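Hi everyone, sorry if this is the wrong subforum. Our group has a chain we'd like a structural model of before ordering constructs, and none of us has done structure prediction before. Sequence below.
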Amino acid sequence: MTTPESAQELLAFHKGLVSISCITENEAPCTEYLRVHLTKLGYTVELQSIAPGRENVLAYLGQGRNPRVLFNSHIDVVPPYIEYREDEENVYGRGSSDAKGSMAAQVQAVEELRKEGKVKEGDIGFLFVVGEEVDHIGMVKSNDLGLTPDYLIVGEPTESRLALGHKGILRFNLRVEGKAAHSGYPELGISANNKLIDLLYKLKNLELPYDSHFGHTTMNIGTISGGLAANIIPAFASAAISFRIATSTKEVLDLIEKTIPKEEQLKDKVTIEIITCWEPVRCHSVPGFETFIANYFTDIPSFLTAKHSLLFGPGSILCAHAPHEFINKKELIAAVGSYKDIVLKLFAESSQ
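Answer:
Right subforum, don't worry. Here is the predicted structure as tokens:
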């Protein structure tokens, strides 16, 4: 059980993390804070350059650079930065839940295991990466580190449940070209907005695939843009669309092509630009935890060499990215014990 002293160390470390603005592409101050903190705790720390001013953090015990269990979470947060504050029950601020809660609890869990003599060199390490909130570039580049863990434990807000997997994602931009004209003479133009509205209506009314494990595929029309003024027939229009994939990206792409055939795209000057395309992910689990399927996406499929991946963390995705983002202190402290339990069960599993 986490002692009061250990709980205070956890909350202090968490406060330090949340108090630093580390919006995607500006993660450097938090990376430096992690480097200093983990070095003081006695870890060997490496920084992996991703881009100027952007670095992943790899930390491990002694010379055990390729540990069998690798904790992971992401350094970056979404904008805007929201300052740290707390009350008796909760900690508030950007990243308090997504995902500094996981990060702090992971480090504290390993510290407790070290003091209890339950981990040694080569057993465990940390990989904290940049860019998860945008393009997963930190996790993609981490494949160059040559790590081959038996287990990757990814920290995201799961409400302290183990995820049995998460949906895939398909993002694309839909662009339509029309012909500009005076709005008093619509017959002289072609409304790109009207064409886009018709296409979105068709997509919105698709019967999307279902999977017994991952549930329903869903669609979101995130942004719509078109036209210059009310008295001009719009020449251009576009929409940004995302699907949360429960079956396969191919099945959804085939549906889209059936709805907007290639011939129609050429004839009506329609362009579909694929931005992101990832399959659903199945995760490993251990007994003793409530489980669920996550509808959000993570860095897991970007890391190619883990034998098994787990997804667990304190806090809720329902408040992540929101102005009121917060994490409950009791849940944060309890996550330390949960991470320890997961690690010890994985050790036992791998020794069988």
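For your construct planning: The chain has a mean pLDDT of 97. The first helix runs from residue 4 to 18.
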